Amino acid sequence: MTSIRRWLLGWLIFGFAAASFGAGYAIFRTAHEEASELFDYELHAVADSLPPSMAATARPPMHDLSDDRIAIAVWNAQGQLVYRSAGAPDIAWLAEGFRTIERHDKHWRVFGLRQPERFIQVAQPVSVREALALRLALRTLWPLGLLLPLTIALVLFVVRRGLAPIRALSAMLSTRSLDALEPVRLAGSVPVEILPLVDALNDLLSRLNAASSAQRTFVADAAHELRSPLTALKLQLQAAQRSGSIKGEGDTVQSIEARLNRIIRLVQQLLTLARQDAESSGTALTPVALRRVAEQAVSDFSLLAEAKSIDLGLEVLAPASGDDAFEVYGEPNALSVLLNNLLDNAIKHTPEAGRVDVVLSRDRAGISFEVRDTGPGIAEDELARVCDRFYRGADTQGEGSGLGLAIAQRVADRHHARITLHNRAEGRGLAVTVSPLTPVNPGARRDGT
What we know:
Order of helices and strands: HEEEEEHHHHEHHEEHEEHEE
Helix content: 40-55%
Structural class: alpha+beta
Distance between the termini: 55 Å
Mean pLDDT: 77
């Protein structure tokens, strides 16, 4: 995978390193050559500074030159050697000026100076000159050696800051919900380099929002237009059945009524789904007493549960107290739709004389509720798909549209919660958990007080 960051860092660091090494080599060669010229000047200065008369046994003070290992030889006008410094090599009288010679497998830099009464010859080992020149040249390079890592660190910082808007855009898009189609807005000014990308992305989101709105409007309008005539048709069928104007077997009429009820249920579910889809994900959440919503839902479904002899109840798990209202941030109507759909599914798939419970609980993660039943459960390979729209399992009993859990999932998403389904371990039945819902007072004690 190609990385702009790696590409920039690689070429910038390589370029700075190559330029630094090239500049360092040039500086090193220049400093080395200047050091050699300086040492030649030193030889010339030593020759000029020698006293006018020097006997063969004279030993002028050379303490300042001891580290440079300079050897001195002096000849008089008659060509006789009148002075040679201690340890000086046996170098014959050479011509005036600078030259490099070899004596006893060692190279020497020699300078000869002719004066009216004498000839002075000063020599220095080339190895000493090279060592001193190298030391001086390296001393000129240490600022460059310090500058290179600082420059690399600066490049890393600049590239990171330069790519920060792209990282911010990626982070913003990765955390967006599927239904958030509003334009992308970055904090601060948008760099001109990524402005075309942001504009194109906002244009795509605008077109997607328009298409999604048109789809939701179509579903809502179609469901609304179908609801009234279907309800009227059911009433007319019942009236005709009572009056005896419809002749036929009772099973046929009941089958027609059952199919009509299923169509009406589907239309109602489509309307509910269209309303939930139309709600913006940015809708403000208000404090809601989840316990009151659960009590109302249990009361609404009590007659339906009694018709199947199902034990329907509400349970509060410890350590929450019995009077805990379980206040959460949410939308009252949406939470009612969520709980009603879960209860409707649970009662529909629970056999007679079964049990359905709504369980409220509170923990450190937040508030959650669970709907448990004693029905047949769901095959393990279908648990991940039952929340898809219009999906009905192969072994599903009874009538349904396949939208109940899809609507519940939509409401849970808007509340930043998740729906978890699992077959109960202690026996037959299914447990559907919605968690976590944000508590109104997260700092309250877990006992609800």
